[in-house]
Write the structure tokens for this entry.
Amino acid sequence: MKERESFGSRFAVIMAFAGSAIGLGNIWRFPYLVGQNGGAAFIIIYILASFLLSLPIFLSESVIGRRTHSNTFGAMEELAPGTKWKWMGLLTVISPLVILSFYSVVGGWSIEYFIKSFGGFGSTSAAGAASSIATGGEASISQVSAAFGWFISSTWGPLFCHTAFLLLCALIILAGVKSGIERFSNITMPILFVLILLIIIYSVSLPGAAEGVRYMVKPDFSKITPSVIAAAMGQSFFSLSLGVGTILTYSSYVSKNEDMVLSASGTAVMDLMFALLAGFAVMPAVFAAGLAPESGPSLIFQTLPFIFTKMGETMPLLSTVVAVLFFLTVLVAALTSAISMFEVGVTYLVEEKGLTRSWATVAVFVGTWILGTLCSLSFGPLHDVHLFGNTIFDFCDKLTSNFLMTFGGLLFTVFVGWKMRRADVRDELTNGRSIRFNDRCFGILYFLIKYLAPIAILVIFVTNLLAK
Ligand code: PHE
């Protein structure tokens, strides 16, 4: 059998993990959730959740993945042979593919907006929705919103972009773990940080931006409710790609001498930093434009193009450059995350079903393309099709973010905390007790994995269940 690939260095491991973690969750979802859930108070809970709950799940997935060097299904079979845990492995093959389906629709929007950013955000809208922008007139937010609404509800444009996005993922995946995933993440992740810093400088220097900065740093604790807490935890899981086997799969490509605690905490810190940076890039711009921070999922696709268009009336070149950089950032971040979901299915098909990497890539592409197409059409021709009261897109989003990810996270921590032997977990997290710092912290980490995380996740799960 062909030797299994592995990441080449510690830097590569952290960049790959960070590549998976940093994505639309940070740039698209985090700012609008901050807006909807009361600003800085939400951020504080989010930070607590990241280290007290997400980190233990991350470590649990890492322990399973690195110990077995196997796909999610094979890993559970190896550690708990002949038990029902293998179904858990299978579930975590399916979950990331469902996420990938709707994720690639939004990834497709970012391709469209990246292209648009070169020439103006209203220019392709229908029925003159933004004709005055295109012809150099005064931009209004309703025109830019109309252009967005028109685009996502049309049939072919979003489908074409969704297909292009998935094709880009497939090409990276086809190149393999080292020459595809590792190389792409190594190059793009550092660039992303530089890009987002440039965008922040632009955003906070806009007149009226200070209000947005204040919104990000001044907590209003009266806004905290159980559902805000659940949203913060859910976002933290989503942002760190947890509960769906991506971290498990990437960990299976990590060599035995790597420090898993260090790479997990390094990833959590980078992911958090990037989310905060994205918040500081988006919120000041939202306030500078006098827009509502709670405008939801369309936030970055409506408010930022509006700002860019508005500023473009006086500073066309600068606005275009920043707009291009912004949507390039969104696109690249989305790609590095999407490939991590893609890889889960590919690793499974190669190792469990004996497919070649190429055929496995084709199979995952076709499956997610079909479901993604339904998600994309659910903004237009299929918007009347409802599953449990949600459009297909919202259903896939809610099913995964509110249920499958939390459920997966719960099972991973329970598996590592209660099913695996404590000595094996210790062995994995401390590399045979050779990493002294990890060995000293092991008691706390184990407590988080065994008790705190599962109990807290159960609470979120029930809160989400009661909420809908
Ligand atoms: N963490 C990614 C983001 O923030 C999303 C993701 C979820 C990636 C689940 C992989 C698995 O965009």
